[in-house]
Write a structure and sequence with these properties.
heterodimer; A: 370 residues; alpha+beta; 6-stranded mixed beta sheet; globular; B: 307 residues; 4 strands
Chain lengths: 370, 307
């Protein structure tokens, strides 16, 4: 380990030509530093540049501008087979004409490892992914989950500096996916290898990652620990993309220190004592965001930041009840956990019922208007 | 009855297959049996078949001759064995050359952009729109003593002030080989292309990712995964080359006689259908033996072959 960072992208741009002949920045000035031993995820919807970024680390694509560093070394046009990174492909890309053993041994044979060592290491890799005894099967004779494990073993057997995973669980059903998430995370902690994980599934990213880069339109929207991304989204896109949020358009009415009063024309009301991040100025148009589970339905309001509304709909989904409240024409979504077992319809909110919503200052976020 | 048919899947299958079955029975199985029967017959002096059970035709094919120099009653004449051997070895040579030429081209086409790929495939197929015989005649025009190749070479030699003697290319074994390769090339290109096209790009990337350079990727991944195409192409080329007579007839003249020519002449010129039938059956058996051993080792090309 020569560098603090396993992978570093410095101001990387990847330009493609669209079928219409236009130039498109699939990756648009991305800078990220991935620490050694970290489980790092790139999260975003399709076309956000996450897979392209991963492919530039692997060496399948070269940067148009900027540079990719692996263990502190600039990669330039180093071909994939000379990089100490290995990839788990979305489609697994297993060699169908080889057995499980041959698939896993392939990378070691390319290194010219002696036969006994290959056998030993393949055996260990199979143990690691719990596929002992499957050596002589062909990939087609395995289930999707087993094929996925072979793909992981084939990449990890090379003991790479960095393991790149491109939506590796996308083809599995939900239950198996959740199992594999925990297994992959455990494997990563046990081996201490840096994992760079690409996914569009926010829950998956949250479950496994030490840090997440939320991407859209080729740019990193926010980078941070899962809790930071969820609790302190940097902008409306992140607040909207990760979890759910109620948004209100507003304007900063007064600012004293870091506390502000925000006027919300839609509600014809103010929120007071709200913490705002630096860079926002008095009079600025902002977006106010509050998570549905952080809006409280109360018996009695506070002097400030309480609003009366009318229930328009309720949806019971087991763990939670989703309550939709009309607040001066604005629909607000509230999640309330069903912490007490009950059946009586009278104990739930009814449509048309008047309720008092309390938004605690800590729960309200003021975001720069996009 | 219709109701019962609707419920009976196997009867449905039989019904659907029956037109083809009848076709095969009438035009393949029965003629084959007739050929076999005739091959054991004898030729009457006026060229008709006398039905009998005689192995004379087969004995003659394997070298027994009653037409000997020096007045013996019988002697060994390897003429027909030589023809058989020539056919097999030409089929081998053609197949190998066709693989060597078709593979890089198929690889190139498979890796081209989809639009260009269609253009290239179209170009491969265009010659097949012209009649087989006409294409062989075109080669005669090229290879002849006064043909295009000699004219160009002559002009070049003249320009460089080198003495030039027109090359004798037509009516040589080489001409037959070139003609065969040309005729059967598309039948190798297409199956190899198909199997190469099926290889997904991530497989090449996975190989590179695991440390394989271009050569190792080709040998360990591309080639084994495209073997079904090579095998299918080999079957499509080897079998017809064994039996064809037009290429050798037109480009080989009297020089290069293959089993196909021998059979054709027995039926048309020599008017000995019994000997022609025997030669046909031997050709079929030889082809079957070679194909049997080949497919036992490599499969029919329908499944992925382990390297």
């Amino acid at each position: 380990m020569t560098s603090e960072f396993a992978v570093e992208l410095r101001d990387v741009v990847k330009q493609f030509t669209t079928p219409e002949g236009n130039l498109l920045n699939a990756v648009d000035h991305v800078t990220m530093q991935i620490k050694n031993g970290e489980f790092f995820s790139m999260l975003g919807s399709s076309g956000c540049g996450k897979t392209t970024s991963l492919r530039m680390i692997a060496g399948f694509e070269w940067t148009t501008e900027g540079e990719v560093y692996i263990e502190g070394k600039p990669m330039g046009h180093t071909p994939p087979f000379q990089r100490k990174v290995n990839t788990v492909f979305q489609s697994y890309a297993l060699f169908q004409h080889m057995t499980v053993f041959q698939n896993i041994a392939f990378g070691l044979e390319m290194e010219g490892a002696p036969k006994e060592e290959i056998e030993k290491r393949v055996k260990r890799a199979l143990e690691m992914v719990q596929l002992t005894g499957m050596e002589r099967r062909k990939p087609k004779q395995l289930s999707g989950g087993q094929q996925q494990r072979v793909a992981v073993a084939r990449a990890l057997v090379k003991v790479p500096d960095v393991l790149l995973l491109d939506e590796p669980l996308g083809a599995l059903d939900l239950k198996l996916r959740k199992e594999m998430q925990l297994e992959l995370k455990a494997l990563q902690q046990q081996l201490g290898i840096t994992f760079v994980y690409v996914t569009h599934d926010q829950e998956e990213a949250m479950t496994m990652s030490d840090r997440i880069a939320v991407m859209s339109n080729g740019r990193v929207q926010q980078m941070g620990r899962p809790v930071e991304i969820y609790e302190r989204p940097a902008n409306r896109f992140v607040a909207d993309f990760i979890g759910e949020s109620n948004f209100f358009e507003g304007r900063i009415k007064s600012l004293s220190g870091k506390e502000a009063v925000v006027f919300i024309p839609q509600l014809n009301a103010e929120l007071t004592g709200i913490a705002v991040s630096e860079g926002l100025v008095n009079g600025e148009d902002v977006t106010v965001s509050i998570r549905p589970e952080k809006v409280q339905i109360a018996e009695k309001g506070l002097d400030v930041n309480s609003f009366t509304g009318r229930v328009t709909n309720t949806v019971y989904i087991g763990t939670d009840t989703h309550i939709f409240v009309d607040l001066n024409g604005k629909r607000v979504k509230i999640f309330e956990q069903n912490r007490i077992s009950r059946l009586d319809p009278g104990s739930f909110y009814t449509i048309g019922q008047e309720v008092l919503l309390v938004m605690w200052t800590d729960n309200v976020l003021v975001l720069k208007k996009d | 009855m219709l109701k019962r048919l609707r419920e009976n899947k196997s009867a449905q299958g039989t019904l659907l297959a029956s037109p083809t079955m009848l076709w095969m029975l009438g035009l393949l199985i029965i003629p084959l049996i007739l050929t076999m029967v005739i091959s054991f017959g004898k030729r009457s002096p006026d060229g008709n078949v006398i039905y009998a059970f005689s192995l004379d035709n087969y004995i003659r094919l394997f070298g027994y001759s009653t037409d000997c120099d020096g007045g013996q009653a019988s002697c060994f004449n390897p003429l027909y064995l030589q023809i058989l051997w020539r056919s097999i070895s030409l089929a081998f040579k053609t197949t190998v050359w066709v693989i060597v030429l078709a593979y890089p081209l198929a690889y190139f086409i498979a890796r081209a952009t989809p639009k260009r790929r269609n253009t290239f495939l179209f170009m491969v197929l265009i010659p097949l729109w012209t009649n087989f015989v006409i294409r062989v005649y075109a080669w005669m025009m090229l290879l002849r003593k006064e043909g295009a190749i000699n004219i160009i070479l002559g002009a070049a030699a003249n320009f460089l002030h080198i003495p030039f003697q027109p090359l004798e290319m037509l009516y040589t074994p080489g001409a037959v080989l070139v003609g065969m390769i040309y005729e059967f090339l598309p039948f190798m290109i297409l199956p190899i292309f198909t199997s190469l096209e099926k290889i997904e790009v991530p497989l090449y990337e996975a190989a590179a990712d695991l440390g394989a350079n271009a050569i190792k990727t080709f040998l360990r991944v591309t080639l084994p995964l495209s073997m079904p195409g090579v095998v299918a192409g080999t079957i499509l080329v080897f079998i017809p080359v064994m039996g064809t007579f037009i290429v050798s007839d037109l480009l080989g003249g009297r020089q290069v006689i293959l089993v196909g020519n021998l059979i054709q002449r027995q039926f048309l010129d020599a008017r000995d259908p019994t000997f022609g039938s025997a030669a046909s059956l031997i050709l079929m058996i030889m082809t079957l033996i070679v194909t049997y051993f080949y497919t036992r080792k490599f499969g029919f090309g329908e499944e992925i072959v382990v390297a």
